[in-house]
Amino acid sequence: MRNKTVTSAPAIILVRPQLGENIGAAARAMKNFGLSDLRIVAPRDGWPNEKAETMAAGAEDIIAQARIYPDLPAALADTHRLYAATARRRELRKPALTPRELAGALHSADAALKTALMFGPERSGLENDEVALADGLIHIPTAPFSSLNLAQSVVVCAYELWAGQQEAQPDTSLSAHTPPAAPDDPPATKEELGGLFEHLERELDTGGYFRTEGIRPHMIRNLRSLLTRASLTSLEVQSLRGVVRSLAEGRPGFSRPDS
Amino acid sequence: MRNKTVTSAPAIILVRPQLGENIGAAARAMKNFGLSDLRIVAPRDGWPNEKAETMAAGAEDIIAQARIYPDLPAALADTHRLYAATARRRELRKPALTPRELAGALHSADAALKTALMFGPERSGLENDEVALADGLIHIPTAPFSSLNLAQSVVVCAYELWAGQQEAQPDTSLSAHTPPAAPDDPPATKEELGGLFEHLERELDTGGYFRTEGIRPHMIRNLRSLLTRASLTSLEVQSLRGVVRSLAEGRPGFSRPDS
Question: Rounded to an integer, what distance in angstroms lies between the CA atom of residue A125 and that of residue A128?
Answer without folding.
Answer: 9
